[in-house]
Amino acid sequence: MDGLNPRKVFSLLFIFGIAVVFTLQFGPGSNGFSTSGDAPTTASAAAVVNGKEIPLRDFSMAWSRQMNFLRSQGSPIPESMARQFGMDKQVLDRLVNAELLAQAAETHGINPSDEELRKLIHQNTDFHSKEGAFDFTRYQQVLRDFYRRTPQEYEQELRRQMAAQKMLDVVRTGAVVSDDEVRARYEKDGNQAKLVFARFLPTMFVDKVAAPTPAQLAEFQKAHEKEIADYYAANSFVYNVPERIRARQILVKVAPDATAEQKAQAKTKAEGLRKELDAGKDFATLARASSDDDATKAKGGELGWVERNTWDPTLASAAFALKAGEVTQPVESPLGVHLVKVEEKKDAQNKKLEDVKAEIATTLYKQDQAKGLAKAEADKALAAVKAGKSLKEQFPVAAGQQPAILRFETETKPEAVETDSFTAAGDSVPHLGPAPGLVKATFEASAPKALDEVFTVGEANVVAQVVEREKPDTAGFDKRKEELRTQARQAKQIELTESFLKSLRKSGNVVMNTEAIDSVLGAAG
After folding, report:
1. How many CA atoms lie within 13 A of 344 on its CB side?
2. How far is CA 222 from the centre of its chain?
3. Which one-letter DSSP state was computed for residue 145?
4. Are 46 and 106 in contact (CB under 8 A)?
5. What is the dihedral of CA 129, 132, 134, 140, to 10 degrees?
6. Which residue windows are coiled coil (predicted)?
7. Separation between Cα atoms, residue 135 and residue 129, nearest integer Å
8. Residue 14: enclosing H or E segment and its boundaries?
9. Which of 21, 125, 380, 411 is the most buried (most CB within 10 A)?
10. d(CA 311, CA 304)
C-alpha cells in the first residue's frame, strides 16, 4: 500500500498499454525479471518463451520506438547511455511478459472477437488516410513497408496481444480495496511535513584551519599512526604513479584482415601526414581532418594522460622515448598506423609512507579541525534559529539562484534549502537523502518549529526547521477518499500483475538471447 514509486508507475504503464505491444512507450522503471532456462535460442530470436521465439526484429522495433519516444519527450539520450540504465533489458522484459500473458490467455480460453480486432486496427492512425479514416490500401502498404508483416501475421499477433490484455483484466479484477486499507493509506500519505535545512560540511571550513605548528603536527602524528597508514594505503595510487605522457594521436586504421598492399597504403598515407607535420601543420588540426580514430578525432586526437602498460608495446616504446613536443614516425599496431605527439611527460613516482607521513598528517589534522569548526558553526546556527532568526535569514541564497546542492554543484558554504513535502513512510529527506533521525524528529513535531538538535547526516552537520506540518483529519480523508481508493486499487493491481507474471516465469522456461541483442544494438550504435 505504499505510494507509487517509479518502478510501480512503470508497471502501471505496462498494465494499461500492453494491448498494442509494438507501440508501447515505456517509462523509467523495470520489473527486473531475467529468468533463464535450458531451451535453445537461435540467432534470430531475442528470447524463447516456453519454446516460442520472440524474433529479434520485434525487439529491434520495440527498441527503436522506445528511443523515438524518449526523443519526442525531449530526452534524446544516446543509446549507449540508455543501455547503461538497463533500458534494453526493460524492453525485452516487456516483450517476454506480453508473450507469457498471451500464452496464459490461450490456456484459459481467452480469445478476442473479430469485431474487437477490427475496431483496434481501425483506431491505429498508422493506417489512416489524409482525411483521418481507415484506409485498407494504406493498411496493406504500412504492414508491408514498415511492420514487415502480412495482414494475416499482423492480425494473428495483434489478436494475441489483445488476449494478453484480457488476461490482465482478469488478474486485475482481484484488486479489491477495503475502507480500512484506504484509511491506512490516508493516515500514511496525509501525515506530511516540509523542512528548511542547512548543511555544515567539514570541507567548507578546511581553508579556515591554520597549518599545524611542528609541535602540534608531531603530537597529532604520534596519536594517529594507524589513520595515517590507512590513508596512505587507500590513496596509494596518488603516491605510486608510473611514468605517464599526455599525448595526441592520428590513426590510419587498418582492418584486421587487410592485405599487404592495404597495409602498405596505410603506411604511405601516415608518412604523408608526417611530412605535413614536418612542414609546420598543426597536429590537432591535422588529426581533426585526417585521423580515423572516431573517439579522439573531434578533440584533435587528444588522448589525455596515458601509462605505458595501457598501450601496444611497440607503440608505447616509440612514444615514451620522445621528449615533450616531439612526434613519432609512423608506428604500426594491430589497429593500424599511428602518429603520436607527446604534449607533456611526468616521471614515475614511488613515495613510501615515511616520505609522505608528515604531508598526510597535515591533511588529516586539518580535516579533523574542520570537523570541529563545522559542528561549532552548526551549533551556533541552531542557537540563532531558537532565538528567532530563521535559516533563510542566516544563510540566504542569491536571488534567482537555487542552492548549490540542487544544482549538483560543490557546496562551499551553508545555504538554506527548502524541501518538498514528504511523508513519514520512508527514512529519507528530499534533497538530503537517508536521515532516519531527522525524519523521526520531524514527525514528532506537531507544528512548525526549529528542531532541537544538530543531526549528523553522512559527513554533514544538519540544522533544520519544520516550516509546514500537515496531519491527517476526518475532513481531509472525506475529501480525498475516492482519489486514495483509486490509487490503492492501482497499487494492488500492480502487485497482482507482478505476482502473476512471477508465477508464470517460475512455472515456465524463459531464455534471453543477450548475445544476439548485444550484436543488434552494437550494430545499431
Report:
1. 6
2. 44
3. I
4. no
5. 30
6. none
7. 6
8. helix 6-17
9. 21
10. 13
Instruction: Write the single-letter amino acid at 51.
Output: G
CA 206, CA 420: separation in Å to the nearest integer?
31
State the cell numbers at 385.
534559529
In order of their start, the domains of the chain are: 20-176+504-521 (1.10.4030), 192-220+356-470 (no CATH), 243-347 (3.10.50.40)
User: Terminal CA-to-CA distance of the chain, rounded, Å?
Assistant: 41
Question: Rounded to whole angstroms, how far apart are CA atoms 485 and 493?
Answer: 12
DSSP-based three-state secondary structure for 219: helix
What would the grid cell of residue 345 be? Answer: 611527460
Q: Which of 234, 200, 228 is nearest to 364 (CA)?
A: 228
Residuewise pLDDT in 10s, the chain (525 residues): 333 333 333 333 343 343 333 333 322 233 333 344 444 456 678 999 999 999 888 898 889 888 888 888 776 778 888 888 888 999 999 999 999 999 999 999 999 999 999 999 999 999 999 999 999 999 999 999 888 889 999 999 899 989 999 999 999 888 888 888 887 777 777 788 999 999 999 999 999 999 999 999 999 999 999 999 999 999 888 888 889 999 999 999 999 889 999 999 999 999 999 999 999 999 999 999 999 998 899 999 999 999 998 899 999 999 999 999 999 999 999 999 999 999 999 998 888 999 999 999 999 999 999 999 999 999 999 999 999 999 999 999 998 899 999 988 899 999 999 999 998 878 999 999 999 999 999 999 999 999 999 999 999 999 999 999 988 766 667 777 788 788 888 888 998 999 999 999 999 999 988 888 887 786 555
Cα 24 to Cα 276: distance, rounded to the nearest angstrom: 54
Closest to 388 in 3D by CA, of 440, 465, 294, 288: 465
